[in-house]
């Protein structure tokens, strides 16, 4: 690992989502024992509590964006919090909250990489590409736009969040598990050259080959950021999300994915997004998420030969 000092940052908002409830995600992860599980692996964990931000006014889109001022406020607060932890040489785990928060988190990580001369690699584990724009999505929900905004497609207030536009280029991103992309979004993903390992690719090639490709080039100079949307998982095992899409990775596929990321020893920041306890069954999805996060930090069945 690059560091064993971990900071938990709760971001209790569903401001960018189309369903209420992701605002309760941070507490569900805490109830599922996230801190104790990480500490059981010898990691020093500090829970920084929850960030503060505006409430969800639940209004229709304005000029194609829903809740843009509130989304900006939450993501600005998150950007500053993540950047502060990275500058302290700590590993931030962002407890979402909806996935619009990937914007604040990753823009901070990208800024830190520019400051330290590191190469950023983002693994975006999700059922959705989140590469929409106001012109492409009728809902205006910004949780469908963060990757596009990070790559410079969106309103200047969001694309310039980390002080640099674009915050990242598409070649920094590897998307895994994608199985729901809007028609116009497909074209933009293709034009931007985003590298996407969709479920067909995983079905045909297997999760091991997928991760080998997604991690190709990761080395000692790489800051590896994982943005884990819980709807990445098949809804049969993870019902507690607002935007379920059938046909996602199984429990074992997801475990292999996390274990192979852990094997790199380069994980340096993490988002856990879109957990919606209002749609869950007895906190089952939160417990599964914690189980998978544990694998990201080194849980394995056997001691492996290096």
**Main sheet properties:** 8 strands, parallel
Please report the distance between the alpha carbons of the first and last residues: 14 Å
Number of helices: 10
CATH topology assignment = Arginase, Chain A
CATH architecture: 3-Layer(aba) Sandwich
Strand order of the largest sheet: 2-1-3-8-7-4-5-6
Indicate the structural class: alpha/beta
Cofactor: Mn(2+)
Enzyme class: hydrolase
Keywords: Arginine metabolism, Hydrolase, Manganese, Metal-binding
InterPro entries: Arginase (IPR014033), Ureohydrolase (IPR006035), Ureohydrolase_dom_sf (IPR023696), Ureohydrolase_Mn_BS (IPR020855)
Structure in words:
The chain is built from ten helices and eight strands. It is α/β, with parallel strands linked by helices and 306 residues long. The chain has one domain: Arginase, Chain A, CATH 3.40.800.10. The chain has an eight-stranded parallel sheet, sandwiched between helices. Helix 9 (251-264) links the parallel strand 7 and strand 8 (267-273). The chain is globular. The model has no long low-confidence stretch (mean pLDDT 96). Belongs to the arginase family. InterPro entries: Arginase (IPR014033), Ureohydrolase (IPR006035), Ureohydrolase_dom_sf (IPR023696), Ureohydrolase_Mn_BS (IPR020855).
């Amino acid at each position: 690992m690059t560091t064993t000092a971990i900071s938990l940052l709760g971001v209790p908002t569903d401001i960018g989502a189309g369903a209420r409830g992701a605002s309760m995600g941070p507490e569900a992860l805490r109830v599922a024992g996230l801190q104790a599980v990480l500490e059981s692996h010898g990691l020093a964990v500090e829970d920084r509590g929850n960030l503060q931000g505006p409430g969800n006014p639940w209004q229709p889109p304005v000029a194609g964006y829903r809740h843009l001022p509130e989304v900006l406020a939450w993501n600005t607060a998150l950007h500053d919090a993540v950047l502060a932890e990275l500058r302290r040489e700590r590993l931030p785990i962002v407890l979402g909250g909806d996935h619009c928060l990937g914007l604040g988190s990753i823009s901070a990580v990208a800024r830190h990489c520019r400051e330290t001369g590191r190469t950023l690699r983002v693994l975006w584990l999700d059922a959705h590409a989140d590469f929409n724009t106001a012109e492409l999505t009728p809902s205006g929900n910004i949780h469908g736009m963060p990757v596009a905004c990070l790559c410079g497609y969106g309103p200047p207030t969001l694309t310039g969040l980390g002080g640099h536009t674009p915050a990242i280029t598409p070649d920094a991103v590897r998307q895994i598990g994608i199985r729901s992309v809007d028609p116009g979004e497909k074209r933009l993903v293709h034009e931007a050259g985003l590298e996407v390992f969709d479920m067909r690719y995983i079905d045909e090639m297997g999760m091991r080959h997928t991760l080998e490709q997604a991690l190709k080039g990761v080395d000692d100079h790489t800051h590896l950021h994982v943005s884990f949307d819980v709807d990445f998982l098949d809804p049969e095992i993870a019902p507690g999300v607002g935007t379920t899409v059938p046909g996602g990775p199984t429990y074992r596929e997801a475990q292999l994915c996390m274990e192979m990321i852990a094997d790199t020893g380069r994980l340096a920041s993490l988002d856990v997004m879109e957990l919606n306890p209002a749609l869950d069954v007895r906190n089952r999805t939160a417990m599964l998420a914690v189980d998978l996060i544990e694998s990201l930090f080194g849980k394995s069945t056997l001691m492996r030969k290096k």
